[in-house]
Design goal:
The protein is α/β, with parallel strands linked by helices and 498 residues long. It contains 19 helices and 19 strands. The strands form 2 sheets. A 12-stranded mixed β-sheet has the order 8-1-10-19-18-17-16-15-14-11-12-13, sandwiched between helices.
Length: 498
C-alpha cells in the first residue's frame, strides 16, 4: 500500500462495533476460553488502569448489560485489594442475564452491595468507574440515565469509562443526547473508531486499549475500519544523494494570497521549504508580492505568467488566501485545468475548496489531495457542518469518493481517506486551532508530493508531521499563543528524524 507506513499492529487498528460484537466470541473460543473469562480479563485491564488514580474510595455505576458485568467484576477486584468501593445501579432490583448476572452474583457473594445512585455516593468518592451503557447504545440516552450522566460530569471527579464513555456512539463518536466526559477510557478487544476523532476523542479522554489475549485471533476474523497513525508508524524518507541539487527535490508552486491575504500563502510556501522542497515559487496577487517576499528571500514570488509557473512545477498547492473574487476564480480555473490535463500533483485548500464546491459537478480530480475542515467539507458535499461532524468517517469517505481524490478531514483526530482506506491521526492538540495552521499543513503535504510521495503517503505523513510538530510546540511553550509559524522548526527536525 504505502512505501512509508509500517505494517499496522492490533493497537493501531479501529473497528466498527458490529465487527467486535460479531467476532469476539469466535475469537475467544479459538483460544479455548469463554466470554465470561473475557469479562474477567476486561475487569483486570480496567482494574490496572484504576490503580493509576490511587483512589481511596471508588464509585462504580452500572447499567443492565455486559458493561455492567465488567463493572461488577472490577468492583470485586477493588474490594479484594482492600479499597473501599460502592456500586450504584440504574435499577438495583432488575435481574440481569448471562455473564452479567454471573458477575453480579460474584460481587454479592463477595459481600458487595448494590445501591441506588445518590448524590452522597458521588460526593464521597475519589474516582468514578462508568459501567453504564457500553457499546450497544443506538438510541438517545433515556432520561433517568441522562440525569446520572449529568450529575457525574458536573461532579468534576475523575472518571474511568469501560470500553466506551456511556452515551457515546461507538462508531461515530457522537453523544446520543448526552454522554460521560471521561478522564480515561479502557477500550477492549478492538479500538472503537468513534473514540478516535472529534467529540468521541474528547469524551474518551486518555484512551487505553487491551485486546484481552485474543487480538491475533480477532484480527484474522474482523475487517478494520481504519488505521491509527502517529510519527512512529513511518519509515524515514530516503537519504539524499550526495550529487543531488535543488532541482532534484521538487519544485513546489503555491498559488494564493489575494489582496490583504498574503500571510496565508506565505505560511504555506515557507512550510514547503521547511518540509524539504528544493525550490518553492509563489504565484500571488500583484498587491501581495512584496508582503510575501519580505523576510523570506528563498521564496520566488510572481504575479505574472501563471502558465509558465505551472509548467515549471512538480506539485501545486492552491487556495491559501486565494479569495473568491474574479482574480481568484480565473486563477483557480487556469491552475486546475492545467494540473488535471498534465497530471500535476495538486493540493486544494482553503478558498480553492470553496470555489471547487461551486462547480463540483465539473471536476473529477486525479492525483489530488483535498484538505477541508468540517465547514469546507460541508460546502463540498452540500451539507451542514453539524451533519459532517455527525459521522466524520462517512463524510471523509464521501469527499474522497465524490472527487476521486485523497481527502483530509481536519479536526481532533484528523481523518485521511483515499476511497479505499482510512487513516486517523493520533497526534495533535487544541493549540493547532489557530489561524494559518491549515496553510502550514497544505505546504507540508505539497512539499512531500513534490519530493515524490503519492497522494496517500503525502497526506498521511504530512498530517502526522504537522500534528506532532504542534505537540512539540505545545510541550515547549503551551497551547495558548501558539503561532502557525512556530511549527516550522519542529517540522524540519521531525522530517530529519531529530
Amino acid at each position: 500500500m504505502s512505501l512509508l507506513l509500517t505494517p499496522p499492529k492490533c493497537e493501531q487498528l479501529t473497528y466498527l462495533s458490529k465487527q467486535i460484537k460479531g467476532y469476539e466470541e469466535q475469537a475467544v473460543h479459538t483460544t479455548g476460553a469463554d466470554l465470561y473469562t473475557l469479562m474477567q480479563r476486561a475487569a483486570q485491564a480496567v482494574f490496572c488502569c484504576w490503580k493509576t488514580f490511587n483512589a481511596k474510595q471508588t464509585l462504580v455505576i452500572t447499567g443492565n448489560g455486559n458493561n455492567a458485568g465488567d463493572g461488577y467484576e472490577v468492583a470485586r477486584l477493588i474490594k479484594q485489594a482492600d479499597r473501599h468501593v460502592v456500586v450504584c445501579a440504574i435499577n438495583p432490583n432488575k435481574a440481569l442475564s448471562g455473564d452479567a448476572a454471573k458477575a453480579q452474583k460474584q460481587w454479592i457473594d463477595a459481600g458487595g452491595e448494590i445501591c441506588n445512585f445518590s448524590a452522597d455516593a458521588l460526593d464521597e468518592c475519589d474516582v468514578i468507574i462508568d459501567a453504564l451503557l457500553g457499546t450497544g447504545l443506538e438510541n438517545t440516552v433515556r432520561d433517568n440515565v441522562a440525569t446520572i450522566i449529568k450529575a457525574v460530569n458536573e461532579s468534576t471527579k475523575p472518571i474511568l469509562s469501560i470500553d466506551v464513555p456511556s452515551g457515546i456512539n461507538a462508531d461515530t463518536g457522537c453523544p446520543q443526547g448526552t454522554a460521560i466526559m471521561a478522564t480515561k477510557t479502557m477500550t477492549l478487544v478492538g479500538i472503537k473508531q468513534g473514540l478516535t476523532t472529534a467529540k468521541g476523542k474528547q469524551h474518551a479522554g486518555q484512551l487505553y486499549f487491551d485486546e484481552l489475549g485474543i487480538g491475533e485471533q480477532f484480527m484474522k476474523l474482523a475487517t478494520p475500519s481504519a488505521q491509527i497513525i502517529n510519527i512512529d508508524c513511518f519509515k524515514p524518507l530516503p537519504e539524499r544523494s550526495v550529487s543531488s541539487h535543488k532541482g532534484s527535490h521538487g519544485k513546489l508552486l503555491c498559488i494564493g494570497g489575494n489582496h490583504g491575504s498574503a500571510g496565508a500563502i506565505r505560511l504555506s510556501a515557507e512550510s514547503g521549504l521547511r518540509s524539504g522542497a528544493g525550490m518553492v515559487k509563489v504565484y500571488t496577487h500583484e498587491h501581495a508580492v512584496l508582503p510575501v517576499s519580505i523576510g523570506r528571500p528563498e521564496l520566488m514570488v510572481t504575479s505574472e505568467h501563471l502558465d509558465d509557473a505551472l509548467a515549471w512545477s512538480t506539485c501545486v498547492v492552491i487556495g491559501p488566501g486565494l479569495g473568491q473574487d474574479e482574480w481568484a476564480q480565473k486563477t483557480f480555473e487556469q491552475a486546475i485545468r492545467y494540473c488535471q490535463q498534465n497530471n500535476i500533483p495538486t493540493v486544494i485548500d482553503a478558498d480553492a475548496l470553496n470555489l471547487l464546491a461551486k462547480q463540483s459537478s465539473s471536476h473529477k480530480l486525479n492525483n489530488t489531495v483535498l484538505t477541508p475542515h468540517p465547514a469546507e467539507a460541508a460546502r463540498l458535499l452540500n451539507l451542514t457542518t453539524s451533519e459532517v461532524e455527525s459521522d466524520r468517517f462517512y463524510y471523509a469517505r464521501q469527499c474522497a469518493t465524490n472527487f476521486a481524490a485523497t481527502s483530509i478531514l481536519k479536526g481532533a483526530g484528523t481523518l485521511i481517506d483515499n476511497t479505499e482506506h482510512t487513516w486517523i491521526c493520533e497526534n495533535g492538540n487544541p493549540g493547532l486551532a489557530v489561524g494559518g495552521s491549515g496553510d502550514v499543513l497544505s505546504g507540508i503535504v505539497g512539499a512531500l508530493m513534490a519530493q515524490g510521495l503519492n497522494t496517500s503517503e503525502a497526506a498521511c505523513y504530512g498530517v502526522v508531521l504537522h500534528a506532532k510538530a504542534g505537540d512539540r510546540a505545545c510541550e515547549q511553550s503551551g497551547q495558548r499563543g501558539m503561532l502557525a509559524s512556530d511549527l516550522f522548526a519542529h517540522v524540519r527536525a521531525l522530517i530529519n528524524h531529530k
